[in-house]
Design goal:
- It contains ten helices and 14 strands.
- It is α/β, with parallel strands linked by helices.
- It folds into two domains: 240 residues, 3-Layer(aba) Sandwich (Aspartate Aminotransferase, domain 2), CATH 3.40.640.10; 100 residues, Aspartate Aminotransferase, domain 1 (Alpha-Beta Complex).
- Bound molecules: pyridoxal-5'-phosphate (PLP).
- Pyridoxal-5'-phosphate (PLP) binds next to helix 3.
- The site of pyridoxal-5'-phosphate has 11 residues, from helix 3.
Length: 360
């Protein structure tokens, strides 16, 4: 078999090796059915069992109460940028957005097509290197939207935003930190996440939504764009992304084998500390995110010299560390170390960076 290398990609990202091996076997025959997992009808018994298991494991992992629906949709997190306002933002209403990075900028832009938007805070002046503490909500927002982890800028909310009107519900784009730590679902109206970082392959989007909101949603959008359509049809109104749902169910089982979200969080904290501790002690490299807001998922760092950064990325790549080039809006390096990224890979990167620094 080809040797796998350390993959720091921001997404699609590394998946647990045991999940990939199990999926490999089931590509030819799902269990003993004699039909590969991608070849089963989504309406057949075998796949329906997979989908039901995926939902039930998801509920178990996150303690999702019965008054929330779990949906497996398509169109990525990007479609949710539009689907949320399409369902919940009337032309004469306002939605509040905490703008903490490029993805929340895209989300608020999409909402602007449907109704009014209010910037509750923005970190743009500091190039999104910190989560703003000064947040000011509009009087009666339909909902409050935030991005729990800013994949590009390497910042992460420690806790959910609060202090907005009781009538508003909280919407979260959790694409890059879903199930990386325990979460209290009851604080949210709707959580969405593209799968391709912590949950599985691209092509499936997990949506967790309070059932009363499903009913409240507008009936104006096309059927495919209404949450009620997908909820009423167990996410099978049309052909669902069957392989993605299958792989997600394997990742959910893997999360449970790790001990669930509390253990996953401990592992993520320990893993990120290996890298941040090094960056804090280095005289060449430094982390770009404010210490209090540092992401456990995406560690962004620079040398302060673009040419030097490029040399680091290129030498790292030659040494078997892939995907370290930072997003063009931040520059430098970004190590994405989602749930499935092994601690050994973070230690190996730190060893490499130490050697690089010593050679300067
Ligand atoms: C936080 C966040 N939101 C949204 C997206 C867009 O996701 P998708 O490509 O699934 O539309 C990304 C992609 O990286 C992301 O990191």
């Amino acid at each position: 078999m080809v040797q796998r290398i350390w993959n720091f990609s921001a997404g699609p990202a590394v998946l647990p090796e045991e999940v990939l091996l199990e999926a490999r076997d089931n590509l030819l025959s799902l269990g003993t059915t004699g039909i590969g997992v991608c070849e089963h009808s989504h309406r057949g018994k075998a796949f329906v069992a997979v989908a039901e298991e995926a939902e039930s494991l998801c509920r178990q992992i996150a303690g999702i109460p019965d008054d929330y629906a779990v949906l497996f949709l398509q169109g990525g997190a990007s479609l949710q940028f539009s689907m949320v306002p399409e369902n919940f933002l009337d032309r004469n209403a306002t939605a509040d957005y905490l703008v903490t990075g490029a993805w929340s900028e895209k989300a608020i832009k999409a909402a602007g097509k449907y109704g009014s938007t209010h910037v509750a805070c923005t970190g743009k002046a500091e190039n999104f290197s910190a989560i703003p503490t000064d947040v000011s909500y509009s009087e009666a927002p339909a909902y409050v939207h935030f991005t729990s982890n800013n994949t590009i800028f390497g910042t992460q909310f420690r806790t959910e935003p609060s202090g907005y009107s009781d009538d508003a519900f909280l919407v979260c784009d959790a694409s890059s930190d879903i199930f990386s730590r325990p979460l209290d679902i009851s604080r949210y109206g709707l959580i969405y996440a593209g799968a391709q970082k912590n949950l599985g392959p691209s092509g499936v989007t997990l949506v967790i939504i309070r059932r009363d909101l499903i009913e409240r949603g507008s009936t104006d959008p096309a059927e495919m764009l209404q949450y009620r359509t997908h909820a009423a049809n167990d996410s099978m109104y049309n052909t669902p992304p069957t392989f993605g749902i299958y792989l997600m169910s394997l990742v959910f089982r893997w999360i449970l084998r790790q001990g669930g979200l509390a253990e996953i969080e401990k592992a993520n904290q320990a893993k990120a500390a290996i890298l941040y501790d090094f960056l804090d002690s280095s005289s060449l490299f430094h982390a770009t995110a404010a210490a209090a807001d540092r992401s456990l998922m995406n560690v962004t760092f620079v040398t302060g010299d673009a040419e030097q950064d490029a040399a680091v990325v290129s030498q790292a790549s030659a040494a078997g560390f892939s995907g370290l080039k930072g997003h063009r809006s931040v520059g430098g390096m970004r190590a994405s170390i989602y749930n499935a990224f092994p601690a050994a890979g973070v230690s190996a990167l730190v060893d490499f960076l130490k050697q690089y620094e010593a050679a300067q």
